[in-house]
Amino acid sequence: MPHPLRLGILLSGGGRTLENLLAEIAGGRLAGLAEVAVVIASRPGIRGITVGENAGVPVHVIRRKNFDKVGDYSEAMGRLLDEARVDLVCLAGFLSYWIVPDRYEGRVMNIHPALLPAFGGKGMYGHHVHEAVLARGCKASGCTVHVVNNEYDAGPIVLQRTVPAYAEDTPDTLAARVFREECEAYPEAIRLYAEGKLRVEDGVVHIDETPYRRPEEG
Asked: Which of 59, 91, 141, 183 would be 110's cystine partner, CB 3.0–4.6 Å?
């Protein structure tokens, strides 16, 4: 790898996932493998902006409502990612819909707080997911890291981690249990990508022991 993987973090809230990734870069499994090149927030006044700024990362705020068309919004996002020379885009609680540009196909990841394909799709985020899991009486839940395409939560699955779901759980207690696993799964998926061990074929992610070279490495 010619340089650490440059991450573009997209967020809409408190920045806990960003904090976790920064910690993993500072001294965890992503040390020497990745760096946060840019943070893009979908709205002002959120804690995630402060997390990025305190880490010395360039932060931009782009609001969907400032654009007439989703295509224009998506292209503005893409330009910022290009300017930051981002290798991998990581959605970290990002709630705005954007169209993934062709040049970023296969280079965008998301982490979802359920075991996809269950409890995914439009409107299924945050506590909405945990409420739905408990309402269904599920005995297990978890998180899923997946490659992002232009359909909600439908991209190829990279990693999943499971947790028990108990009858006495509240959305808060289940969310806390799932988030602990998110803090393990997302850095691991990014590490595998950085090491060139992820391969997508026919809509399925394969994890190879022998790394391949990323396209930009020639």
From this structure: 91
